[in-house]
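Known limitations

Files may contain more than one protein. Parsers should not assume a single record per file. Below, a two-record file is shown to illustrate correct handling: read the sequence, read the C-alpha cell line, then continue until end of file.
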Amino acid sequence: MAPGDFDGPRIALASAEFAADPHAAYREMRRRYGSLAPVELAPGVPATLVVGYHAALRILNDPEHFPADPRIWQRGIPADCPVLPMLEWRPNPIRSAGPDHLRYRSAVAGALGKVDLHRLHATVEEIAVPLINSFCETGRCDVLGQYAQPLVFAALSAMLGVPPEIGRRASEGMALIFGMADAAAGNAMLAEALLDLVRLKRSTPGEDVTSWLVQHPVGLDDEEMVQQLVLLYGAGLEPPQDLIVNTLLLMLTDDRFAATVLDGSLSTRDALDDVLFNDPPIANFCISYPRQPILVDRVWLPAHQPVIISMGACNNDPAIRRGEILDNRSHLAFGAGPHACPAQSPAVLIVQDAIDQLLDALPEMALAVPRSELQWRPDPFYRALVSLPVEFPPSPPIGMAGFR
C-alpha cells in the first residue's frame, strides 16, 4: 500500500459516535485495515492509529525511525487547529528526540524519582477527607467534579509545590486546553502561571518536584522549566482523574467487583489494572512522526504524519489477549520504550488511595443513573466520562485516621 493510501474515509476520533463505543470502532479498524488504521484527529488533520500490539511495540521501541519531534509536521497546521496545543513541539521529553529527549527526560525522571511515596499517601488522605465530608451528608455527588478533579489537582499541586494563586491560574489554563474551545488562550494562561512558579522556586526552593527540576544538573532555563511543568500538568491531571472515575465505574457495575468491594476478594488494584488494560484513560497517544516513508505490516506510513498508538486497542488485540488479565500488567497504558511514563508509581498511588478513601467512607455507593445514560466525552486522546453521578446513604463526616 502506498504511503497514506487507505481505502475510504478516515475515522474521526473526536466524534460522539467514536466516544460512545470506541472498542467497536477498534474491532472494525482491525478487521478492515489490520494493525494500522486511517484516522482524523480533527477536521483536515490525518493520522495513522496503531491498533495492533506488536506493531505498537515495534514503533515505541524505535525512536530512530519514529521520533517524537513534530516540528516538520506542524508547519502545515493552522494555528487555530484544536489539537495543536496537544501535539505541537515543546522542549520536553515527549515532544523531542535524540540528545534533547535524553536531557529533558533525565531531569523529569530525576525529579519524580525523589517524590516520597509515604508522604504522598498521607497527602492524598489529607485532601480526600474534607472533600468526602463536603458531600457525604447529602447522599449524592458527581465523583468527577466533586472528588476526582479537585483531589488530583491538589495532590499534583502538593507534589509540584504550587501556591494556591498560581495553582488557580494553571487550573484555568489547563481546562481551556483540554476543552479545546480556546486552547490558545489556555496555553498562554498556563505558561504565565508556570513561569511565576519557576521564578518563585529559583528564589525560594523547597522539597518539591519544581525545585528539584530547577536544581537538576542539566540546567534547564526558564522556558524549558515551564515546558517540563506543562508536561507534568498535562500528564498529571487528566489521566489520573479519569482513571479514578473509570476504575470506580468498573467497581460499581462489574459483577466481578461490585459483589466483592466489601468482602475484599478483589482489590482496588485489581480493578485499576483491569481498567488500564481495557479502558485506559489515555486511549490514543504516544505520538511519533516517521522521518521518511516506512513500511510497517505491509503498509507504507508517510513521512512526518502523526502515528498514534492506541493503548485502548492494542491492549485488547486478540493476538495477545488470552482470557482474564487480573494481576497482569503488560498493558501499554503508560507507554513503552524510551518514552514510557516515568510517573507510574505516584500516579497509581494517588488513584488507588483516592478510591480506597472514598469506598471506605461510603461503602454502599452505587450509580445514581443507569450506566447507559453516562456520557463519554468526544476526544481523540482520552477515554473520559463527562460526569459520574453516584448515590449512597447519607453519612456523618469522617475524621482523619492517622492524623493529629
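...continuing to the second record:
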Amino acid sequence: MRREVRALLHILVGAAVLHISLFSELYLRYVRKGLRPYLIASGALLVAVGLIGAALAARETLRPKQPEQDADEPDAHHGHGHGTPRTAWLLLLPVLAIYLLQPQALGAYTAQHSAGTATRPAGASGGFSPLPTAGDGGPITMRLADFDLRAGWDTSGSLKGRQVRLTGFATPAPDAGGWYLTRLTISCCAADALTSKVEIHGADAPPKDTWVEVTGQCQPDGRAGQDGAVPVLAADQVRRIAEPGDPYE
C-alpha cells in the first residue's frame, strides 16, 4: 500500500474515533464512559501519525528525481511500480459507516437471546445493606441490575412493601401479552453486555424497545433464590421516556 494511502486511512480512522468520542457521545453505544479519554488519545494519535505520513509522502514526491539508470545497469524495480491494491480501499467502509450511519445501542433483540443476571453474588451470605429512605416518601430509584439481585437473593426482605422506580426498555416475554423491563450492563464494551430483566405485571406491554420508567413494588412469586430467575414487579405507573444518553448501566 502506498504511503499516502496509509496516511489517508490513518487520518480518516482517527477522525472517526474523535467524531464519536470528542465531538459527540456516540461512543457510549460501544464502550463505558470511563474509556472516553483513551478513545480521544487514540484518535488524536492516529490523526498525528497520518499527518506525519502525509508530510513524508509529499516530501518524497517533491524530491528531485534521480538520474535515469544506465541501460546496462539492472533495473532494481524490474521495470514496474507497485500501486495500491483495490481491496485496500475497502478499509474505508467502516469509517464511512461511522459518519453516515447512526449506530443503535443493543436492545430487545439482544435481551431476548440472553439469560437474566439474577445469579447469586460471589461470597454473598444473603445480607444486603439497608435501602435508603426517599426524602419525600416517594419511590426509591434503583439500577435494574441491583433490583434483580435484591429480589433474588436478599433474605432480609428489604424490598417488601417498598416502592421502587426502575428505568429500561420493553422486551416481549415468551408468554403472550407479557413483557420485561430490561437493561444491559457492560463492564468494558458492548461485546460483554449482560442482561437484567424484571417481569412487569399490571400494565400493558409497550412497543418493543420502547424506553419506559416503571414505578411499583416487588411481587414475590416463589422463584427467589434460583439462578436465572426473573423477578416480578407489580406496576403502579409506567411512563414513556426518551432513550438515555448512556443506554447501559
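Parsers that stop after the first record will miss the second one. For reference, the second record is described as follows. The chain has five helices and six strands.
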